[in-house]
Design goal:
The complex is a heterodimer of chains A (246) and B (219). Chain A has a two-stranded antiparallel ribbon. Chain A is an all-alpha fold. Chain A has 4 domains: 40 residues, no CATH class; 72 residues, no CATH class; 52 residues, no CATH class; 51 residues, no CATH class. Chain A contains 7 helices and 2 strands, in the order ββααααααα. Chain A starts with a strand and ends with a helix. Chain B has one domain. Chain B is elongated, with a radius of gyration of 23 Å. The mean pLDDT of chain B is 84. The chains are: A mainly alpha (246), B mainly alpha (219).
Chain lengths: 246, 219
């Protein structure tokens, strides 16, 4: 068989390379490219057009983890800056905001990551673009107004040009800002800080002679727990990838 | 017949195959881990804070003083109060600041030990006979190794803290810095030890996913 010929897979008849159907049994000799899926095209080497998602899926576990945490850290940096500026918090609080939002950001990025990986982006380009547009619209409608509402008082204060709003609007914005900050602080105090100290102090009081001063641990144990949780999530994800392999 | 098959498939739990071993857990044992571990941590923390465990504070203070004297030559002394009304104190003479340090509940890493004991005790065992054979031995080994290493790490942390403070570095700064460093090292070390010798803790948490998937499919 020369380079200009090809063999039929069913009857073994040698046909010319330009033949589409076998001259002997009449079956289709090659699957036309229009019928191949993108993954088959990649497997047969018929295309170098690998989408970003497919390229990403071929990365190994270490790169994926590094990319994931890179995105989480970047998003956490931005979120913490937005919150710090909008609530007018001191610069010293930035680090604690960063730590506090870390787990939340991991969850958000994880959900979006999971949706992106499990979605079939090998479909038509139009579908992918429309999906992107939906996300952009969600971002514009929900996120930006919230940001403006929170950040407007401090943004107005830092501008050199004075924009005079009606006093009622200024008062309303300040009241909303104070109310939301107050609710957040009250929630934290009522549901996290006070119960823990009350629990330990009442336990300490009730057993008076035999109990030494029971110390309420500060935030230090939470650092250990958080690092342990993050490492555990990585290990569990590794097991997930191993069990999902065909 | 179909209902019987459905019932049979519901009762058969999924089996995970990882690293050449099979893992199967009962939902009750996973619930014990998730709910029981934090509760046990609280009780262990409270128990270690009781006055009957004052000997732990004395022992830790003496070990720290030993390291300060043998490595850093600080001539430190341990002050133990007979009525046990106060925590033991380490006194360092000729100190530029105060020179007197109380060894409190957090100093002996009580919260870390309670976390380790709570988690390790509640790790469920897989039903596979190969895993069950050495499970208790592995649990004991992990407990001993992790507590020993963290205790040694903690003693050196406090010794370094007192030494740096003696040399003029502010206490709060060095306390926070050393704590962050040892917390990171301790957490990663604990995760490594669990991953190496007691992977059931991670696999049992992951096992919830195929369990729920199987229930959905059988319904």
């Amino acid at each position: 068989m020369t380079v200009e010929e090809k063999r039929c897979g069913k009857c073994g008849q040698i046909n010319k390379k330009s033949d589409i159907y076998c001259v002997n049994c009449g079956i289709l000799l090659d699957t036309p490219e229009i019928f191949l899926t993108d993954q088959e095209k990649i497997d047969q080497g018929k295309t170098n057009d690998i989408s970003i998602i497919d390229r990403f899926k071929q990365l190994n576990f270490g790169f994926k983890m590094a990319l994931y945490f890179g995105i989480v850290v970047l998003m956490d940096l931005v979120l913490s800056i937005i919150l710090m500026l909008s609530l007018g918090l001191p610069i010293e609080s930035y680090f604690f905001l960063f730590l506090g939002f870390f787990l939340l950001t991991m969850g958000i990025v994880g959900i979006i990551w999971n949706i992106a990986v499990t979605s079939d982006f090998s479909a038509h380009l139009g579908k992918a673009i429309s999906r992107m547009i939906v996300w952009i619209i969600v971002f514009l409608i929900i996120i930006i107004p919230i940001y403006v509402l929170f950040a407007l008082p401090s943004m107005l204060g830092s501008l050199s040009v004075t924009i005079s709003l009606p006093p009622a609007v200024n008062t309303a914005i300040e009241a909303i800002n104070d109310a939301i900050t107050g609710v957040f602080e009250a929630f934290l105090k009522a549901f996290v800080l006070d119960p823990i100290s009350e629990m330990f102090s009442s336990l300490g009081d009730s057993i008076d002679e035999s109990v030494s001063n029971v110390e309420v641990p500060g935030f230090e144990p939470f650092l250990l727990i958080t690092i342990f949780l993050i490492a555990s999530i990585i290990i569990i994800y590794k097991y997930h990838l191993i069990t999902r392999k065909p | 017949m179909r209902e019987h098959e459905k019932e049979k498939s519901k009762s058969q739990k999924p089996i995970l195959k990882l690293n050449g071993r099979s893992y199967e857990f009962s939902p009750f044992s996973i619930m014990v881990l998730i709910i029981g571990a934090p509760i046990l941590c609280f009780f262990v923390y409270f128990f270690l804070s009781l006055r009957i465990n004052y000997w732990l504070y004395e022992l830790t203070a003496k070990q720290i003083a030993f390291i300060l004297n043998s490595i850093f030559n600080l001539n430190s002394q341990v002050i133990i109060y007979p009525e046990q009304s106060k925590f033991p104190t380490i006194f360092i003479p000729n100190h530029p600041f105060n020179g007197s340090y109380s060894i409190t509940t957090e100093c002996i890493a009580t919260h870390v030990f309670s976390l380790f004991i709570g988690i390790i005790s509640c790790v469920p065992s897989s039903k596979d006979p190969l895993n069950m054979k050495d499970f208790k031995w592995r649990k004991l080994m992990v407990l001993i190794i992790s507590i020993s290493v963290i205790h040694i790490l903690n003693i050196f942390r406090i010794a370094l803290l007192l030494f740096f403070n003696f040399n003029g570095i502010p206490f709060e700064f060095i306390h926070q810095s050393l704590f962050f460093l040892t917390a990171i090292i301790g957490a990663l070390f604990f995760t490594f030890v669990l991953h190496k010798w007691l992977p059931e803790i991670f696999i049992s948490i992951y096992y919830i996913y195929p369990l729920i998937s199987q229930r959905k499919r059988s319904n």
